[in-house]
Design a protein that fits this description.
The chain is mainly beta. It has 2 domains: 296 residues, Neuraminidase (6 Propeller); 135 residues, TolB, N-terminal domain (Rossmann fold). It has 5 helices and 31 strands. Strands 1, 2, 3, 4, 5, 6 and 7 form a 7-stranded mixed sheet that branches. A 4-stranded antiparallel sheet has the order 10-9-8-31, with no helix packed on it. A 4-stranded antiparallel sheet has the order 11-12-13-14, with no helix packed on it. Strand 21 and strand 22 form a beta hairpin. The longest helix has 20 residues. The protein starts with 5 loop residues before the first helix and ends in a 10-residue tail after the last strand. Belongs to the TolB family. It is found in: Periplasm. InterPro entries: 6-blade_b-propeller_TolB-like (IPR011042), Tol-Pal_TolB (IPR014167), TolB_N (IPR007195), WD40 (IPR011659).
Length: 463
């Protein structure tokens, strides 16, 4: 794996080999207009009354999880096909809940159901569960339906009693929707099971943008530019993606519709525009411009044409990441001699250095959704590793080991991080909990890089 970070490829290499950059690209590299206002705030957290279990996370931080029981979903006929669908939904739901980093899933219902002590709710409560999920797949006149229930324990209060339409060809989708509903009902937070990850893949020869579900399923191509595309970044509403593309032998920014794949250019006066980041209010894009062998940060309206300078330094500034409130920006700069992570106000003032490892290469900063932490990469003897640290400073905590691990991107709930790695030989996309646990591989082969996690879809009404 070559260098992942935009800074590594587009700063230090630019300084030394500006002519070669247009011909070479690393395998593993680091979407509105005025009408797209800042997203609506998340709904107020409900008083669920569910007691969590406390686990330890990185640096001894306390991570609360809820003990949640699942009973295998039933069906209202002896139809074998319905049984298979019920089993498939149950399996995906179990995986979603386990991977959410919010629950301790208890799913051995057969043992709990044969204790012979009291009702089903009582048995699961005695087993330590604080909530119980049940489901029934049934045939209705207008199609298949999953009726799901969620009970709070030990009082047995019904939190969810909802019917979901089931598409026989897309059973994962109904499981994801139910998982997100469970997360919201028990925590008041948006779940991520229905979210997507955009990334770059060379599986068809060129480096195109692809989309997949948060779990690696549902893979589909998004662009067919037949060139080198890189650095995808989502709009706050999750409808569009801005990216950098080497079309017509110049690096330009494009905005692509995440559903249709239709792309439009973001016009600038420069021929070298990289590392875009969409502002939290959806109205601006922050990115790097390389002019006369120097790289600085600029902002531009989504409609384009009038970039405004954000930094002005003889050394390179790139890889920007907005804070969730849009007031600050983290970025990579080698103004101290080697690439390091810095933070500044959104207007370019009050620049301060965040990372201080002597002689280290540190970059690709990404702000956590709660604004408390920044993940970044640091180069060691064997390649890059993903680290995380508090925004106010302190000691970084290393999250990865083995191979080279790059391009971190937070899940919208801040509980997981996706990144690319060559730890298993090829360049692939992985995901882990934000404390480095529960590592999962999402792709296999094709040269995959630059993952970007979408915002979480807003919870909607019943199906």
């Amino acid at each position: 794996m070559k260098r992942a970070s935009d800074f590594g490829l587009w700063t230090s290499d630019i300084f030394r080999y500006i002519g070669l950059i247009l011909l070479l690209s690393a395998v593993c590299l680091s979407p509105g207009d005025e009408a797209f206002a800042q997203p609506a705030p998340a709904p107020a957290r409900p008083d669920t009354g569910v007691a969590p279990v406390v686990h330890l996370g990185v640096k001894g931080s306390r991570r609360s999880v809820i003990s949640l029981a699942l009973t295998p979903f039933s069906r209202d006929t002896s139809d074998a096909a319905l049984n298979q669908i019920a089993e498939a939904i149950f399996a995906v739901l179990s995986e979603d809940l386990r991977n959410s980093a919010r629950f301790e899933v208890l799913a051995d219902s057969a043992r709990a159901d044969t204790t012979g002590q009291g009702t089903l709710l009582d048995r699961w409560s005695a087993a330590g569960a604080r909530a119980l999920v049940r489901g029934l797949v049934r045939q209705k006149p207008d199609g298949l339906e999953l009726y799901a229930t969620l009970y709070r324990l030990p009082d047995g209060k019904l939190l969810i009693g909802k019917a979901y339409r089931v598409d026989r060809e897309r059973v994962r989708g109904v499981a994801h929707r139910l998982s997100d509903d469970i997360v919201y009902s028990l925590t008041g937070q948006q779940g991520v099971a229905s979210s997507q990850i955009a990334f770059v893949s060379a599986v068809r020869g060129h480096k195109e943008l692809y989309l997949m579900g948060y779990d690696g399923h549902g893979l589909r191509p998004l662009t067919d530019d037949r060139t080198i595309n890189r650095s995808p970044a989502w709009s706050p509403d999750g409808r569009r993606i801005v990216y950098s593309s080497l079309r017509q032998q110049r690096w330009d920014l494009f905005i692509v519709d995440a559903l249709s794949g239709a792309a439009t250019p973001v016009r600038t006066s420069s021929t070298f525009n990289t590392s875009p980041a969409w502002s939290p209010d959806g109205r601006q894009i922050l990115f790097s411009i390389n002019d006369e062998s120097n790289i600085d940060l600029y902002t531009i309206s989504v409609s384009g044409w009038r970039p405004r300078r954000g930094t002005d330094h003889p050394e390179g500034d790139t890889e920007p990441s907005w804070s969730p409130d849009g007031q600050k920006v983290a970025f990579t700069s080698d103004r101290a001699g080697t690439p390091q992570v810095y933070i500044m106000n959104a207007d370019g003032s009050n620049i301060r250095r965040l990372t201080w490892e002597p002689d280290a290469y540190e970059g690709s900063p990404r702000w956590s959704p709660d604004g408390r932490r920044i993940t970044f990469v640091r180069r060691g003897f064997d390649g890059f590793d993903v680290h995380v640290m508090e925004v106010e400073g302190g000691t970084p905590f290393r999250l990865t080991a083995g191979g080279s691990n790059e391009n971190p991107s937070w899940s919208p709930d801040g509980l997981q991080i996706t990144f690319c790695s060559n730890r298993d030989g090829g360049d692939d996309i992985y995901v882990m909990n934000w404390d480095g646990t529960n590592l999962r591989r999402l792709t296999s082969g094709g040269g995959n890089s630059s993952p970007a996690w979408s915002p979480a879809p807003r919870q909607e009404g019943g199906d």
